[in-house]
């Protein structure tokens, strides 16, 4: 499974919706809000075996699938 597929899977588990286009805003499109973001982060931590510090819970870092992928790459 690719990183994009893992991210899309995590998003689907949290939102019960299929993932949007890679660069579509998850917040503007209604996929995520400030309440769902911690759930997504927890799922990403589980799927990728990484730890995401609370200080990184900035919506800009999780704005789109491509930004999430870039962030995860930076955490490895």
Number of helices: 3
CATH topology: Non-ribosomal Peptide Synthetase Peptidyl Carrier Protein, Chain A
Q: What is the helix/strand order?
A: HHH
Mean pLDDT: 92
pLDDT below 50 for ≥5 consecutive residues: which ranges? none
Number of domains: 1
- End-to-end CA span: 17 Å
Radius of gyration: 11 Å
Helix and strand composition category: mainly alpha
CATH class: Mainly Alpha
Largest sheet: none
The outline comes out as globular
Number of strands: 0
* Share of residues in strands: under 5%
Portion in helices: 40-55%
Name the CATH homologous superfamily: ACP-like
What CATH architecture would you give? Orthogonal Bundle
Write the layout of secondary structure elements.
Layout: H1 3-15, H2 37-48, H3 65-75
Helix pairs in contact: 1-2, 1-3
What does this protein look like?
It is a single chain. With 76 residues, the chain is an all-alpha fold. Helix 1 (3-15) crosses helix 2 (37-48). The radius of gyration is 11 Å and the shape is globular. The protein has helices spanning 3-15, 37-48, 65-75. The protein has one domain: ACP-like (Non-ribosomal Peptide Synthetase Peptidyl Carrier Protein, Chain A), CATH 1.10.1200. It is built from 3 helices and no strands.
Short description:
With 76 residues, the chain is an all-alpha fold. It contains 3 helices and no strands. It has helices spanning 3-15, 37-48, 65-75.
Comma- or semicolon-separated keywords:
single chain, 76 residues, mainly alpha, Non-ribosomal Peptide Synthetase Peptidyl Carrier Protein, Chain A, 3 helices
């Amino acid at each position: 499974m690719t990183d994009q597929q893992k991210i899309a899977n995590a998003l689907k588990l949290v939102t019960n919706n299929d993932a949007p286009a890679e660069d579509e805003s998850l917040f503007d499109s209604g996929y995520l809000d400030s309440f769902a973001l911690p759930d997504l982060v927890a799922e990403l931590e589980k799927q990728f075996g990484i730890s995401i510090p609370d200080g990184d819970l900035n919506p800009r870092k999780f704005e789109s699938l491509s930004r999430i992928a870039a962030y995860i790459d930076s955490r490895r």
